[in-house]
Specification:
This protein has six helices and six strands. By secondary structure, it is an alpha+beta fold. It has a domain of 96 residues: 60s Ribosomal Protein L30, Chain: A, CATH 3.30.1330.60. The strands form two sheets. It has a four-stranded mixed β-sheet. The chain has a two-stranded antiparallel ribbon with strand order 1-2. Helix 3 links the parallel strand 4 and strand 5. The chain starts with 5 loop residues before the first helix and ends in a 21-residue tail after the last helix.
């Protein structure tokens, strides 16, 4: 028959064993916690991240100003900026260029971008190249998509009941690739203000017992008949 005095001792030993199972010997013999055991959600091993990227084109300096191809390149840059929700476009002039010629090019670039509603700022960069181009660029947020499946562990070793190293990577990688505006990863966007007029309209319809939803436009296809 087991003595009742040994029960507290057994409980203490079991608690110590449980604590040691979550740790491993690190440098210097010190116990370090297993990070996989501390993750409540396996997807947290691959958190969504965003990094700053740059889109840049180089325009050769011409005495006659912008060429047709350069104008099209600027329009394409403005289109990519709008799609990527990029920042202000920076026009960087080489310091060694002819001031008059570079100034005409700069004015033409600013006028072209201004017609497209693109804000512009100026800058300069040092170079020893006498034929250095004008650099036109903007910064934008880009989702950091993790590369999954590069390192695999033995999935048959499950005695520790730990999370395997790639678990959750594919889910977060697909999510990062599908996010329309990667800036939303950095911080949420501000909400638009509520419409007081719409709120009054909905309340009036509700009090009158009428449908509160917006009326459909004439000729709009309906699926209300499906399933009837």
């Amino acid at each position: 028959m087991t003595s009742t005095r040994t029960l507290p001792v057994i409980a203490v030993l079991l608690a110590a064993a449980a604590g040691l199972s979550a740790c491993a010997a690190g440098p210097g013999g010190k116990a370090t916690p297993n990070p996989a055991l501390q993750v409540a959600n396996p997807g947290a091993l691959f958190p969504l991240k965003v990094e700053e990227a740059k889109d840049q084109i180089a325009l050769a300096i011409h005495a006659d100003g912008l060429s047709t191809a350069q104008g099209e390149a600027l329009k394409a840059l403005a289109g990519r900026r709008s799609e990527a929700r990029g920042g202000v476009v920076t026009v960087s002039l080489p310091e060694g260029a002819d001031a008059a010629v570079a100034g005409r090019m700069d004015g033409a670039i600013e006028a072209t971008l201004g017609q497209l509603g693109v804000p512009v700022t100026r800058a300069a960069y040092r170079t020893e190249d006498a034929k250095a181009p004008i650099l036109v660029s903007y910064a934008y947020d880009k989702a950091d998509i993790p590369a999954c499946g590069k390192h695999w562990q033995d999935l048959t070793k499950t005695k520790d009941n730990t999370v395997q190293s790639n678990f959750g990577c594919a889910v977060n990688a697909n999510m990062a690739a599908m996010i329309a505006n990667p800036s939303d990863i950095r911080a949420p966007r501000a909400e638009d203000g509520a419409s007081a007029e719409r709120r009054v309209t909905v309340l009036e319809k509700y009090e009158a017992g009428k449908p509160t939803g917006a009326e459909s436009a004439q000729g709009q296809p309906s699926i209300a008949h499906i399933g009837q």
